[in-house]
Structures are given as structure tokens and as C-alpha cells.
UniProtKB/TrEMBL annotation:
Residue ranges constituting the HTH araC/xylS-type domain according to the UniProt record: 225-323
Protein name: AraC family transcriptional regulator
GO molecular function: DNA-binding transcription factor activity; sequence-specific DNA binding
Key words, A-Z: Transcription, Transcription regulation
Cross-referenced Gene3D superfamilies: 3.40.50.880, Homeodomain-like
Signal peptide: none
Tagged with keyword Iron-sulfur: no
Organism: Flavivirga eckloniae
Pfam families listed in its UniProt record: DJ-1_PfpI (PF01965), HTH_18 (PF12833)
Length: 331
């Protein structure tokens, strides 16, 4: 029997990231018992908090933990639930008691640790992700990179798996990580059963198609903010790094350095992401052809545009339009 500790952070926990794993692990237990593959449950599951009770969503919901970290002396798998994005700094501070407990379970009991969505921030605080790869919600990528430069972030990934440390992408993509863990611990048959029971797309491995690029404006470099505004206001034009640095009267080398420091993107990457986001919006909301949309964001080479679009979204322009266009999608 494998002991699972699903952590319940204080106050701003995302309820679904607690209930989802709990229900899925329970369903695996039912699968083993009902099929006669085992006479006892595969997982022993505890909801574990710093305190026994956590109130969520301004009192609309509450979670009663059946254990605290002081009750669990040994566990095999720790699930770090997701927290709300506006609560990162406050959430880490409020839940700091989890950190030495997680580190102890990892170092002394060889526990495996998985973070769901923005739970990666709490996992990163333990140091267990240092010099490893991880993923998290696309909306938290830039802040995560700033806070934890020793960690390699893979923003397109739905799941990462390194040496018993796991992370998942944004929001409900945690379901894919739970399926991954079930496949790893229980085998293909159990994983397929659960994916069918909960109607989870077991093959999904890229979250780029869901990302919305809003530009990184949370910095104080006014010159770079002017450059960003110019790029966003001239999405139909072919804007070059040379043109931008000349317009702002700084050397090209200095401009690139300052731009990367402020936005975590090179100027070229930023230009490309702005244009791809504009193309995505057009593909979602208009009946324009792919070529018309390509020309409208300043590209004239179909192959180059297709390659660029797929790099940032994981889908071709045609596939993206078929999936997200409001008039083509039927509900």
C-alpha cells in the first residue's frame, strides 16, 4: 500500500486540486478491489494540513483535513495542491511549515513529491527543484523564473518527471499528472480505466495552446515599456531590433540586454509572441483565411509563419482555427 499525503495549504487553496486527486486515487482503489486485482486498497490517502480545518472562497467551502503534518511521520507521495495566483508571496509565508516537513519526508523517507499548477512555487521553496526542470501555470512562468533562477522552466509541458519530483502545468492539467502517477505506480490498465472514467485526455502533453500572452509590463524600465508599446501598436508591420534601438537612441547590444532583463524575452521573441497572439485572436474570431491573417501580422512566408505559430502554440494555424474558432466549434 502506498501512502499519499494531499497537502491542503491555508486559505487560498484551489479546491479542485484537492478534490480531484482525492477522487481519482479513490477510484483506483475501487478498480483494484472490484476487479479482484487486490484484496486491499492500493493507496492510503490523507488530506494533510498545517491545521485541521481550512476555509476557502470567502467561507463558501471548507476542507477538514484528517491529519496534520505533525501526525504523518512517513509518507510515500506528497501532492502539493494549487494556490490562487494572486496569493503567491503571501501563500508561501502562510504555509512555510510545510517546507521542512516536505524536505524531511524526501531526505529521510525518500518520499516522491508532486506539485499541481502554482503549487510549484511552494515546491521550489524547498530547494528540491534546484537544477531540475519543472512546469507550472503559463500565467506564473515569468514570476517563477524571476524568483527561482536555478530551476529550468519548461512552459509548454503538461507534466515533468525527474528523480521522483513531479510538476504539472496550469489549472486542470493536474489531472494529466495524476494519470501519469497512476500509470507509473499502478500500470497502464488502471491509468486507462481512470482516464475513461473521468474523461481525461490521456495523450495531452502541451499547454502552449492555452497560454495568453499579455506582455511583461511589471517592470520599471520606461524605455523598454516604450519599445513594448511600439511593438504592440505596430503588429501589422515588420519591426526590427535595429529599428527599435535606433528609435530609442540606445545601442543595439544595450537595448537587447535591457529588454531581456525587463521582460525575460529577447526583443525578437517578444515581437514574435505579440504577432502570434494577434494571429490567435484572428483565428478564433474571424473567418479570414490563414494567408490573410498571416499578412495581417506582418508575415509573407507561409512556411515560416506556420513554424513560428506552432513553436509558440503547439498547433498549426489550421489546427488552432479548427479547435478554437467560435463559428466552427459546435457545443
Amino acid at each position: 500500500m502506498k501512502h499519499v499525503s494531499i497537502l491542503v495549504p491555508k486559505s487560498k487553496t484551489i479546491l479542485s486540486s484537492v478534490v480531484g486527486p482525492y477522487k481519482i486515487f479513490k477510484s483506483v482503489n475501487d478498480f483494484f478491489l472490484q476487479t479482484g486485482k487486490s484484496q486491499q486498497p492500493f493507496f492510503n490517502i490523507n488530506l494533510v494540513g498545517v491545521d485541521k480545518d481550512t476555509v476557502l472562497y470567502d467561507g463558501a467551502f471548507s476542507i477538514h483535513c484528517d491529519a496534520t503534518i505533525h501526525d504523518i511521520f512517513k509518507t510515500d507521495l506528497i501532492i502539493i495542491s494549487a494556490v490562487k495566483p494572486e496569493w503567491i508571496a503571501e501563500g508561501i509565508k502562510a504555509n512555510y511549515e510545510f517546507i521542512p516537513w516536505i524536505k524531511h519526508q524526501r531526505s529521510q523517507n525518500h518520499a516522491e513529491v508532486a506539485s499541481l499548477c502554482l503549487g510549484a512555487f511552494l515546491l521550489a521553496e524547498t530547494g528540491l527543484l534546484d537544477n531540475k526542470q519543472c512546469t507550472t501555470h503559463w500565467a506564473g512562468i515569468d514570476l517563477f523564473r524571476q524568483m527561482y533562477p536555478k530551476i529550468e522552466v519548461l512552459p509548454e509541458k503538461i507534466v515533468t518527471d525527474q528523480e521522483g519530483i513531479y510538476t504539472s502545468g496550469g489549472a486542470y492539467s493536474f489531472l494529466n499528472l495524476i494519470i501519469h502517477l497512476i500509470h507509473k505506480f499502478c500500470g497502464q490498465e488502471a491509468a486507462v480505466y481512470v482516464s475513461k472514467l473521468f474523461e481525461i485526455d490521456i495523450s495531452r502533453d502541451n499547454q502552449n495552446q492555452f497560454a495568453i500572452f499579455r506582455g511583461q509590463k511589471e517592470h520599471t524600465d520606461e524605455l523598454i515599456q516604450k519599445a513594448q508599446l511600439f511593438i504592440e501598436n505596430n503588429v501589422t508591420e515588420k519591426v526590427s531590433v535595429e529599428e527599435l534601438s535606433g528609435m530609442l537612441a540606445v545601442s543595439q547590444r544595450n537595448f537587447i540586454r535591457r529588454f531581456k532583463k525587463a521582460t525575460a524575452n529577447t526583443p525578437l521573441e517578444y515581437i514574435q509572441r505579440v504577432k502570434v497572439e494577434a494571429a490567435k485572436n484572428a483565428l478564433e474570431s474571424t473567418q479570414n483565411t490563414i494567408n490573410e491573417i498571416m499578412f495581417s501580422v506582418g508575415y509573407s512566408d507561409t512556411k515560416s509563419f506556420r513554424t513560428l505559430f506552432k513553436r509558440y502554440t503547439g498547433l498549426t494555424p489550421v489546427a488552432y482555427k479548427n479547435k478554437y474558432n467560435r463559428e466552427l466549434v459546435s457545443f
